[in-house]
């Protein structure tokens, strides 16, 4: 079975193909390694000033883990970087973000 990181990279590539306005994709660390968490920054997303995770069930064999996608505008990503917006509290105080696309 593919690793969470490999599945995250596959999803990131597919999402960039589907939305050419995506500027950045970050993987949000899941210490348990049980789900794929992506934060996507896209110019095609409006600025709502809130973080709203979208959850998806696993879809084996290509996506063997459940996934969570957060879509942010560039302004919302800046707000997140300035701690004006917060990721879901259930993920802990400072989850690690790794840019993958």
Short description:
With 101 residues, the protein is of the alpha+beta class. The protein has helices at residues 4-18, 74-81, and strands spanning 22-28, 36-42, 53-56, 67-72, 97-99.
Which secondary-structure class do the elements indicate? alpha+beta
Helix-strand string: HEEEEHE
Level-2 CATH architecture: 2-Layer Sandwich
Strand content: 25-35%
The geometry reads as globular
Biggest pleated sheet:
5 strands, mixed
Indicate the mean pLDDT.
95
Low-confidence stretches: none
* Total beta strand runs: 5
Instruction: Briefly note the CATH topology name.
Output: Beta Polymerase, domain 2
The named CATH superfamily: Beta Polymerase, domain 2
Kindly provide the name of the CATH class: Alpha Beta
Number of domains: 1
Distance separating the two termini: 22 Å
Number of helices: 2
Helix % is: 10-25%
Round the Cα radius of gyration to an integer and report it: 13 Å
Strand order of the largest sheet: 3-4-2-1-5
Written description of the protein model:
By secondary structure, the protein is of the alpha+beta class. The chain has a single domain, classed as Beta Polymerase, domain 2 (2-Layer Sandwich), CATH 3.30.460. The chain is built from 2 helices and 5 strands, in the order αββββαβ. The two termini are 22 Å apart. The mean pLDDT is 95.
Features:
101 residues; alpha+beta; Beta Polymerase, domain 2; 5-stranded mixed beta sheet; 2 helices; 5 strands; 23% helix; 27% strand; globular
């Amino acid at each position: 079975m593919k690793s969470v990181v490999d599945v995250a990279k596959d999803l990131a590539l597919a999402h960039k193909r589907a939305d050419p306005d995506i500027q950045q994709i970050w993987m949000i660390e899941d210490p348990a390694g049980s789900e794929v968490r992506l934060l996507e920054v896209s110019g095609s997303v409006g600025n709502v000033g809130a973080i709203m995770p979208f959850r998806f069930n696993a879809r084996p064999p290509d996506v063997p883990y459940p996934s969570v996608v957060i879509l942010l505008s560039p302004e919302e990503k800046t707000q997140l970087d300035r701690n004006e917006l917060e990721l879901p509290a259930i993920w802990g105080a400072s989850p690690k973000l790794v840019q993958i696309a």
